[in-house]
Amino acid sequence: MTLRKRVAQVVKDLPPLSTVRRFWHESRFCAENAHGAFRGVYRSFAEARAAAPRGHNVGFDHHVFAGVYPDRLRRIFAYDYPVLFWLKPLLAGGPKIFDIGGHVGLHYYAFPPYLPDLPGISWTVCDVPSVAQAGRRLAADRGDAANMSFTSELRDVAGHDVVLASGSLQYIESPSLAELLGSLASRPRHLLLNKLPLHDRPTFVTLQNAKVTFTPCRMLNRAEFLGSLAALGYRVIDTWEVPERDHYIPMHPDRSFGAASGMYLALGDEAGPSASSRLDFNRLTAFLDRTA
């Protein structure tokens, strides 16, 4: 850090300016348009919940949260492409998929234009009770989700072949993914994990503005997270960055970091998709990019 930057940091941290900055960040954090903003560093989910703004929803188990992503029922985003890339060849084996934090079935509804075989696949969404209930109602109203079911029990992952968790693991207080998978007699062969807040500092908890609620969010130490899965026999096949997700925590520059992470892991000697199937998907995504 240059002398100029050190001086600027010292000035910003002087009590009068520090108090003004803290007040300003607090008011911004609670704003309606601050979806995704973070605040504070806490030792536990309980401590983060206790620090949530008064008079607001806390956590995801609220019916209002079930309706926050209507656009995601019919479109995908840039960060979805790596998941589509690796999921497409896996569908050939007719796997049973367990979608942790899949909301009202967002992936099941948005992916078929890119994965035509998906509607014939057994797909279980695991989410909080109020969201799962809304997902069941939506599926009944639509009438086009015969192979999708809902649960709020993580232990129902037993018997599934693929775990998909896109931007969800960091909001689960317990068990950790490794603890959950380690409790199973037979583990899923494939893990597709996306939008994970992995960093190289010690694991900690922060509070996030989730649009219609405030929720604790665990920022995960990369080595610990990967090591816990490696101990169960999972090996990393691919990794990618999700630059759309930034993890800036005001007043805590030492705990802030940039892009989120995604990865595909396979159990033991499980082979990844063949080069031919991967090339086919590359051509598909290139075609979609040209015609978008």
Class from secondary-structure proportions:
alpha/beta
Order of strands, main sheet, comes to: 4-3-2-5-6-11-10
Give the N-terminus to C-terminus distance in angstroms. 43 Å
Poorly predicted runs of 5 or more residues? 5-11, 274-281
Mean pLDDT: 88
Q: What does it look like?
A:
The protein has 292 residues and is α/β, with parallel strands linked by helices. 32% of the residues lie in helices and 22% in strands. It contains nine helices and eleven strands. It has a seven-stranded mixed sheet with strand order 4-3-2-5-6-11-10, sandwiched between helices. The longest helix has 17 residues. The chain is globular and about 55 Å long. The termini are far apart. About 5% of the residues have low confidence.
Detail the topology: elements first, then pairings.
Elements: H1 3-12, H2 15-29, E1 38-42, H3 45-50, H4 81-90, E2 96-100, H5 106-110, E3 122-126, H6 129-142, E4 148-151, E5 162-166, H7 177-182, E6 190-196, E7 198-199, E8 204-209, E9 214-221, H8 222-230, E10 234-242, E11 260-267, H9 275-291
Parallel strand pairs: 2-3, 2-5, 3-4, 5-6, 7-9
Antiparallel strand pairs: 1-8, 6-11, 8-9, 10-11
Helix pairs in contact: 4-9
Keywords summarizing the entry:
292 residues, alpha/beta, seven-stranded mixed sheet, four-stranded mixed sheet, 9 helices, globular
Task: Please give a quick description of this structure.
The protein has helices at 3-12, 15-29, 45-50, 81-90, 106-110, 129-142, 177-182, 222-230, 275-291, and strands at residues 38-42, 96-100, 122-126, 148-151, 162-166, 190-196, 198-199, 204-209, 214-221, 234-242, 260-267. It has 292 residues and is α/β, with parallel strands linked by helices.
